[in-house]
Protein: Phosphate ABC transporter ATP-binding protein
Organism: Novosphingobium olei
Amino acid sequence: MNTPALSPAPTPTFPDPVAEAKISAKNVSVFYGAKRAIDDVSIDIPKSYVTAFIGPSGCGKSTFLRSLNRMNDTIAGARVEGEILLDGEDIYRSGMDVVQLRARVGMVFQKPNPFPKSIYDNIAYGPKIHGITGSKSELDGIVETSLQRAGLWDEVKDRLSDSGTALSGGQQQRLCIARAIAVDPEVILMDEPCSALDPIATARIEELIDELRGRYAIVIVTHSMQQAARVSQRTAFFHIGKIVEYGTTSDIFTNPREERTKDYITGRYG
Ligand SMILES: Nc1ncnc2c1ncn2[C@@H]1O[C@H](COP(=O)(O)OP(=O)(O)OP(=O)(O)O)[C@@H](O)[C@H]1O
Ligand SMILES: [Mg+2]
């Protein structure tokens, strides 16, 4: 089943510029060898909202998320069919600069993965390799702004030369978000970014996502219904490789159209 647009949202009385599609996936299937993990999925991901991907384990959320910045390219045997447009440009076209793409569409993983380098270098690395800047003072500025935006600056400003791996789990995850922000991305993909964190660190990341909303298109995969309801404005429910239902988060959680969505959000399976 294809669910190309938002429904069953009421007809808006004026255009909603923040809901404009940043990424348009059209008839996307993803295979691992002969196994089809994503089956003909179409979705428009809005520019200035947070979109949550929910669904039972193994339904393909991470696989689909990785197809949005071609991270599946790094998995042997993985193959993507269909079309994924970023601002109308096919990211799978030949000649696409994948390194550049992954700066535009950044990713934050389940387990914080700072580089075994200083806090400063964790942030400065991307801008350096992408040639955004080489000057020390400009780099200092990017490091400070990125850490500030990620809500980490006050905690680390006096220890920028300490190793990123010496931070707490929640701080490491904010460092990884700062690292993604440092290369001036347009989209940030987060795959269960809080699942390794305690409730306080989780609340901090959720606040952060809310602060970043509007500046970047954000997609978050989560197993927590509460988290999806708190942080997102759009929710897509995945089930066995398909999107069963996609709509405003309030509709999905309070008025789902599909029985399978209802069963999942009420905890009947998953
Ligand atoms: N590298 C891989 N090689 C082969 N099969 C894979 C690979 N990664 C995932 N799969 C399979 O693809 C399907 C979708 O997996 P995926 O990790 O995308 O699910 P998910 O929805 O993210 O699950 P979870 O909620 O447990 O993280 C599963 O059947 C999984 O076993
Ligand atoms: Mg996953």
